[in-house]
Amino acid sequence: MHAPKARSISCTTRPGTQNLDEVGQNMHTDIGTLTLLFAPQWGLQVVSPVTGAWEYVQPREGHAIINVANTLRFLSKKRFRSALHRVLPIGGVQKEDRYAVSYFLRAADDTEFKDSNDEVSNAKSWYLTKYHTYELPHDVQGEQTVLSGGMAQELQATF
């Protein structure tokens, strides 16, 4: 697998369903430096750094949600915090199709930093490691710092 260009755009559609196994997205942080998200429906949740609770982000027409991602967190020596987030429809039921457009900005492949385990890594290696982690069972994902860029451990959030 290769890492994509330093920027990419993703248009996603998730069909409405009553099956709870088919809704939502596991807790994670984004890989690159910044993410711009355009999502007109409720469902995005972030962990409050104050309360540690999951809180819904109100969608606002004509606005983007901007997330700090892992590489920017690591390059800033953790001064900036990656947005720990997940997608979970209100009430756990996705009655309508869900649409989102995401713009991901990544650092150059050879950009070096200390990752969530304080090991020297680079943007390409982090990207590949993180996507490999998405393929693991959820309980294994939760034992590692990769999926959340260390934010789950810092905020003591649970999967």
Automatic annotation (TrEMBL):
Residues 17-106 form the Isopenicillin N synthase-like Fe(2+) 2OG dioxygenase domain. Pfam families: 2OG-FeII_Oxy. InterPro entries: IPNS-like_FE2OG_OXY (IPR044861), IPNS-like_sf (IPR027443), Iron_ascorbate_oxido_reductase (IPR050231). It comes from the Eukaryota. PANTHER family: 2-OXOGLUTARATE (2OG) AND FE(II)-DEPENDENT OXYGENASE SUPERFAMILY PROTEIN-RELATED. Belongs to the iron/ascorbate-dependent oxidoreductase family. This is Gibberellin 20-oxidase. It comes from Fusarium mexicanum. The lineage of its organism: Eukaryota, Fungi, Dikarya, Ascomycota, Pezizomycotina.
